[in-house]
Amino acid sequence: MKHFKFLKIGIFILSSLFIVSTALAGSLPDEWTEINPAASGFTYNGLAPACSNAPGTPDCEFTFFVKGGKRNNLVIFFDGGGACWDSMNCIFAPTYTQYQNEELSDFSDDMAGHGIFDQTRKENPFKDWGFVYIPYCTGDLFWGANDQPYFAGINPQNGQPIYATIQHRGFVNFQSVLAYLEENTNYPGKIFVTGSSAGSYGATMAFPYIKESFKWSNVHLLGDAGNGILGGTFQTDGIYNWNVQMPDWIFPEGYDPTMTMADVYTAIAAEYPWSRFAQYTTAYDWNQTFFYNVMLYIDNPGVWGLWPLVWCDWHDQMLDLAYGTAAAPNYRYYIAAGDDHTIMGYSKFYTEESGGVSYVEWVESMIKTPNKWENQECEDCLVPLPCQ
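^ that's the sequence the OP posted. Answer follows.
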């Protein structure tokens, strides 16, 4: 009995020390607040947080937004905005958000009242949670840490090529956010990592770093409209312009051009078996199909807009990857009807039901009742005419 008493005292002391240490970590502000990481002098691999610095774009700094909640839980959201990996779609016909145009007032008006950010809705699973919103302006899916020169034309005076440097610093930006959270966040009980479109890929690759920084938190991941259907030379050529950063304790060889997003999810899910992983997409997501077409015809922007020609191909590959990833026991997918792109920041978050179960209930099950959390797929998927 004496040993048991000492054991209880020891546990109490350790618990008290843990509570004190987490309390000393600080907390997020009560209202949405804009954070500028450049003010702290943060760098990663010698690079400071920044946007693309694309030709003709205004000078801007990378900032992010935080807000505390009534509960010590945290949503970390990665914004979307396309991607670029070649002179054609980085310089001549940009297919990505080149600079950050969100200021605090704009962010509050545009995002704070929609989708998971609408904390006035009682059915919102994240109603009382804290939030971190990470804007996107680097064209690299938050994976890059490289300043890459791209061909931008010919100098008419001397006939020499002109190059413009794109700052693919998305991963640098993420690391600056993570450093802030480590210094300013009470140890969250739960962390929900998510992102839409390009942000879906960012959330996926960021997950291991977040989990390692908050080992005692329950951390889960949901990717919104980032299924990773790839084509052309993107995987073997273009992506190398980003200097992709990957967690070396999971991917010791770094980026592998044969790797699919199914492989990425499966490997991360295996590394963290107590976390839950998920993806959402519509069956015929128009935007993901568009980027698949850009990859196939990167040198011919005149046909990028003809993405309906590859709609069916994209759909079939998406299903293959979804079904393949489902072999991981802690992974689920939700495939909704139609061709919309992204859901987490829209009112559709509360109205989507085409998967057989309401989407908001499915997300809540992921967080609270995983024994009731199952794969969902539309029966009437609203197949577009080109695929009929």
